[in-house]
Amino acid sequence: MMYIAPSILAADYAELGRDVRAVSNADMLHVDIMDGHFVPNLSFGPNVTKAVDRVSDLFLDMHLMIEQPERWFDTYAAAGGDRLVFHVEAVADPRVAARQCREVGVQSGIAIKPATPVEPYLDDLEDFDEVLIMSVEPGFGGQKFMPQVLSKVFALRDRIAQTGAATLIGIDGGIAESTIAQAAQAGVDAFVAGSAVFGAANPAEAVERLRALASEAAR
Ligand code: DX5
Ligand code: ZN
Q1: Can you give the residue ranges of every domain in the chain?
Q2: Measured from the CA of 138, which atom of ligand 1 is nearest?
Q3: Rounded CA gap, 86 and 76, in Å?
Q4: For ligand 1, is residue 142 a contact (CB within 6 Å)?
Q5: Is 6 in the pocket of ligand 1 (CB under 6 A)?
Q6: pLDDT tens-digit readout, 63-92
Q7: Fold for domain 3-218?
Q8: Spatial CA neighbour of 69 closest among 14, 109, 115
Q9: Are the C-beta atoms of residues 145 and 177 closer than 8 Å to each other?
């Protein structure tokens, strides 16, 4: 199964309800939370995600680009989060943080910046419902895809094949019609796309095209 996850970071915030409804054919929504400290940008907070949750039936994958994310697990679980994906660079022990996510009743995920290796987490995949490989430096939409991070996707795919872990492999940053095939071939399950979806004339059609390209490439 190929999951296309539009990132609402690239939506029109004055028309957020319209944009969220426009991608109801997607498989989940990607919700970027930035605090201006972990990354040099601010996005939106729990009041906005609550509003998004109200107008969408989609699963909300929340990408927490924030310091001390554990302090906010309760808040974002209550604000519509179905999975909380925190950065390994922001916590002392990702396994402990993942347990804390699950304790508030949501799925757990780890996000990994381009320069951070994945090897330290390969033995603990059962703790994480998703591993999100960043294919740009987190903080901004519309950046160029970094193909060198695909070696981490290969390593994850190998380990999941050996162990049968149910962990989803996600990729985030620069995913577009020109880049999605190589990510799918490497073994990605969930593709985040911001500008490629909301920058398109018809976001729903962009979702369908991306899903078709990913499915075709993975075959
Ligand atoms: C970047 C965010 C991404 C961003 C992707 O820090 O984590 O989710 O929205 O945007 P595009 O798809 O435009 O690269
Ligand atoms: Zn993101």
Answers
A1: 3-218
A2: 6
A3: 12
A4: yes
A5: no
A6: 999 999 999 999 999 999 999 999 999 999
A7: TIM Barrel (3.20.20)
A8: 109
A9: no
